[in-house]
Amino acid sequence: MKKLHLVNLEATDNIITPEQFEEINLASPAVEIFTDFKVHKALMIDGDTMAVTALQLMLKTHVRMNIVVAENDDFVGIISTNELSEQHIVAKLSKGIAREDILVKDLMIPKSDFHAFDYSELLRASVGDVVSTLENYQLRHCLVLDRASHHIRGVISTSDIARKLHMDLDLNVKQSFGSVYDVVHQKASSM
After folding, report:
1. Which end of the chain is more exposed for a tag (fewer CB within 10 A), N or C?
2. How far is Cα 103 from Cα 46, in angstroms, rounded to an integer?
3. pLDDT tens-digit series, residues 95-104
4. In the chain, how many domains are there?
5. What is the 3-state secondary structure (H, E, C) of 96-133?
6. Which DSSP string do the residues of 28-96 spell out, in sequence order?
7. Which domain holds residue 129?
8. 143 and 154 in contact (C-beta within 8 Å)?
9. Could you give the CA distance from residue 45 to residue 63 in angstroms, rounded to a whole number?
10. CATH number reported for the structural domain that contains residue 106 in this entry
């Protein structure tokens, strides 16, 4: 039997993540950058949740977007930290609604106003195609719809794309996706 030696952690800087080993670039298949709900559980929130509670939960868990559901987990919309901002809450307060009465469903983007990538088309697309589309529509999040099965298959997030492309960007500020697109293309052309 071999005797193993334990080592000191003093020179350890960080914890490794799978993304650090992924070799993803603009030519990579688009399915490499989407959160597939067949693999990862969708982040959902009930539409009747108080808006201030939803924002606190999202900030605490570092989540920027949730799928809003009604009874029986029926998909009704999307809520992000942008819609839960103090500015949107104050707009509701100015209409005489009490802060504790403002619900997620009052601030969400309803599914009728949301667009999605078609999963079958995404299978034939590249990361660059997705980045270009998101830039054109100025979106931070986009759902992926499996039309053959009639269900939401996943979501694509600009922050996930930036992380997987190993870009050090803070997408939480008022930065347009166009500037992310420019940085990606500068990085790709310098390689």
Report:
1. N
2. 9
3. 999 999 999 9
4. 1
5. CCCHHHCEHHHHCEEHHHCCEEEHHHHCCCEHHHHHHH
6. SBGGGGEEETTTS---EEETTSBHHHHHHHHHHHT--EEEEE-GGG-EEEEEETTTTSHHHHHHHHTTT
7. 25-189
8. yes
9. 12
10. 3.10.580.10
Q: How many other β-carbons are positioned within 10 Å of the β-carbon of residue 33?
A: 23
- Two tokens, residue 170: 């803070």
Angle value at C-alpha 17, between 12 and 21, nearest 5 degrees = 105
Instruction: Indicate the pLDDT class of residue 18, thresholds 50, 70 and 90.
Output: low
Residue type, 142: C
Whether residue 7 lies inside any domain: the answer is no
- The residue-averaged pLDDT of 140-146 equals 90
Q: Per-residue confidence at 137, pLDDT binned at 50, 70, 90?
A: confident
Mean pLDDT of 137-148: 89
pLDDT tens, residue by residue, 43-61: 999 999 999 999 999 999 9
Neighbouring CB atoms inside 10 A of 113's CB total 9
